[in-house]
Design goal:
By secondary structure, this protein is α/β, with parallel strands linked by helices. It contains 14 helices and 13 strands. GO terms for molecular function: glycosyltransferase activity.
């Protein structure tokens, strides 16, 4: 068994990276690994992801401590553990910790897509630092290949995000409800989804937006402008324990983001037998949604194509059932035990 450290900027805030970290940490701990989840900073509004964690949790800087103090404390924590693997979950964490690993092997993980990295400072940071680590881990084979070819990384590996649970009961796909889940913020582009939903002309259908965020007022006004305010339901934040009911009550899931890594909402929806409509913005999206097989993909930013895809599935129950059944079968590869297997394969590879 191995010592495994997962380090994030803040490990307990509400977010996709944090959820993945705690889920994988618990899975590895249940197999006997000595697992530690480290937050370099304390989360302002901590969230709980695992009811009874079998791993250790650490916060390096509870307050505004100086950088030298945080580095010293980080090095002391890492040095106190038996040599193993330190997984740094973002470029920011890599730049802060890459020189503090001691006898541990360093793994740089990137939770975004190649396309998103190229559009911001992440690409330069990944190119500069990840290739010098023992391994660079990405969310999909497509993203790993692109980083290997374009950023010239010699050490790429791919491991998807995991599904924490596998439902026994699935959606019946007979209710006129489109589900979208995410923070109501610009990158999710729910304005596009509201527009596309309205343009389908399916007046008996509702769009349910699960999540909260700074753009709620703007999106409500946009729904009014599009003439669908009475059919767009702003549900707010719903606890994870209650999301099963939301998935079973829907007939398809939609994702309209400008960029995504490997969004768990699509995998979770697929596990309930929901087909997906999404913009094709990353290798992670394509790993989750096989166009015409488990859902429908629209070109990035193309509202007309998104409208057509939504309309196709809203109009055809049998097509939803066909795609939904295939989506559930495809999602089995993202079950937690299989993802933990991939992490253990990586550890074995690094020991050789």
């Amino acid at each position: 068994m191995s010592t495994v450290v997962f380090a994030s900027m803040d490990a307990d805030t509400l977010g996709g990276i944090q959820r993945v970290v705690h889920t994988v940490a618990q899975g590895l701990a249940e197999r006997g690994h000595d697992v530690h989840v480290v937050g370099l900073h304390r989360a302002a509004d901590p969230a709980s992801y695992v009811g009874f964690p079998r791993y250790s949790r650490h916060v390096i800087s509870p307050g505004p401590e100086p950088a030298w103090w945080a580095r010293r404390r980080t090095a002391a924590l890492v040095g106190s553990l038996e040599p193993g693997f330190v997984v740094m979950t973002s470029p920011g964490v890599v730049t802060r910790m890459k020189d503090l690993l001691g006898l541990h092997q360093g793994i740089g993980q990137y939770h975004g897509s190649y396309a998103h990295a190229r559009a911001c400072w992440h690409y330069a940071s990944v190119k500069a630092h990840y290739g010098k680590l023992d391994q660079a881990v990405f969310l999909s084979p497509d993203d790993a290949w692109r980083f290997a070819e374009q950023a010239l990384l010699p050490n790429t590996w791919d491991i998807p995000n995991p599904l924490a649970d596998w439902p026994a009961e699935i959606a019946e796909l007979d209710r006129h409800r489109v589900l979208a889940v995410g923070r109501l913020a610009g990158v999710k582009r729910f304005d596009r989804l509201i527009t596309a939903f309205g343009r389908t002309g399916r007046s008996s259908w509702e769009l349910h937006l699960v999540g909260d965020g700074p753009d709620e007022g703007r999106l409500r006004a946009h729904a009014v402008a599009e003439g669908v305010a009475d059919r767009v339901r702003f549900r707010g934040r719903i606890p994870a324990a209650e999301m099963a009911e939301e998935y079973r009550a829907a007939s398809l899931v939609a994702l309209s983001s400008d960029h995504e890594g490997l969004p768990l909402v699509l995998a979770e929806a697929a596990s309930y037998g929901l087909p997906a409509v999404a913009h094709d913005v990353s290798g992670g999206i394509r790993a989750l949604v096989r166009d015409g097989e488990t859902g429908l993909l629209a070109p990035p930013g193309d509202v007309a194509a998104l409208t057509a895809a939504l309309g196709t599935l809203m109009a055809d129950t049998r097509e939803r059932q066909r795609l939904g059944a295939a989506a559930r079968e495809h999602a089995r590869q993202f079950k937690l035990p299989r993802v933990v297997d991939r992490w253990e394969e990586l550890f074995t590879h690094l020991r050789r």
